[in-house]
Design a protein that fits this description.
about 290 residues; alpha+beta; Tetrahydropterin Synthase, Chain A; 4-stranded antiparallel β-sheet; about 50% helix
Length: about 290
């Protein structure tokens, strides 16, 4: 079912015509009752019947709104002309909003790629682009959008780990743009049959489930400490190498392998220690 644009007639002339018919019907009815002329009564009834038909065909279409027309269950077309419009009074009319809408899904509890339970929620921005599909392809397109959005969010959350464990790995916490793009693609695939276009989808809430939050926090802290220590050691080793190289190049002092090892040990203690070291001045021979 695809949208079929159709035309409608301006409603203002028909509204004025309805007022004229109302005056004719009222006038003819009064004169028929006063003069007792059957022909005037017939004119009054005819004008009243035409008035009902004219008024029944009037409907209003607001900006960013469409009217889906059907006749006895058969789809006729979609009207997007704004203002007061008129069509066949036997057409049934259903208004569909084409405005941009958004909602935030509830917090879902799912297992991420590594199996850890997490809480996740997303903000979905969407609008109807095909009124016919929204009306005839699904029973309730708004409910369809909400349910399919939660299903797509669950499927996306199980495809990525919460944290990045390897270099270049996409995770929910560190790659928001890539994850949002994946979520939007899944939503487009699920909602295209309902005539809905997803403009934006992004994660609004992401956290470990309460039962493992404390343990995961400790793991994150441990990973941070390990990363920091690794960087400190790498920097310290580089500084020791530079110090030994400069001493040897400038000929300041000649050290044997044992003294080099002792110097390296002392420098690493100074550079890698968590607390400031207390210097000891040796006034005698280093040997």
């Amino acid at each position: 079912m695809k949208e079929n644009p159709t035309h409608s007639l301006p409603g203002i002339p028909f509204l004025l015509g309805a007022l004229v018919l109302a005056l004719i019907a009222a006038s003819a009815l009064v004169r028929a009752m006063v003069a007792g002329v059957p022909a005037l009564l017939f004119v009054a009834l005819l004008a009243a019947a035409l008035l009902v038909l004219v008024v029944a065909g009037l409907y209003k279409v607001e900006p960013n709104q469409s009217a889906v027309l059907s006749l006895f269950g058969r789809y006729i077309g979609t009207v997007k002309d704004n203002g007061l419009r008129w069509n066949n009074p036997f057409y049934s009319t259903r208004k569909i909003s084409l405005r941009v809408r958004n909602f935030e899904s509830g917090r879902l509890k799912v297992n991420e790629l590594d199996g850890s339970p997490i809480e996740i929620a997303a903000v979905i921005v969407w609008r109807v682009v095909d009124s016919a599909e929204a009306v005839f392809n699904v029973d309730d397109y708004e409910g369809f959008v909400h349910i399919q959005s939660e299903a797509a969010l669950r499927a996306m959350a199980t495809s990525y780990p919460y944290d990045q464990h390897e270099e270049g790995q996409i995770s929910l916490r560190s790659h928001a743009s890539e994850v949002s793009l994946h979520l939007k693609e899944q939503l487009d695939e699920r909602l295209s049959t309902a005539g809905v276009d997803v403009l934006e989808a992004r994660i609004s809430h992401l956290a470990y489930a309460p039962e493992i939050a404390h343990a995961m926090l400790q793991r994150q802290q441990a990973n941070a400490v390990i990363a920091a220590r690794t960087r400190i050691v790498a920097g310290a080793v580089g500084m020791v190498e530079m110090a030994l190289s400069e001493l040897q190049k400038n000929g300041v002092v000649q050290l044997d392998e044992e003294r080099k090892a002792q110097m390296v040990s002392n420098l690493l203690v100074v550079l890698c220690g968590e607390r400031g070291t207390q210097p000891i001045v040796n006034t005698g021979s280093i040997y």
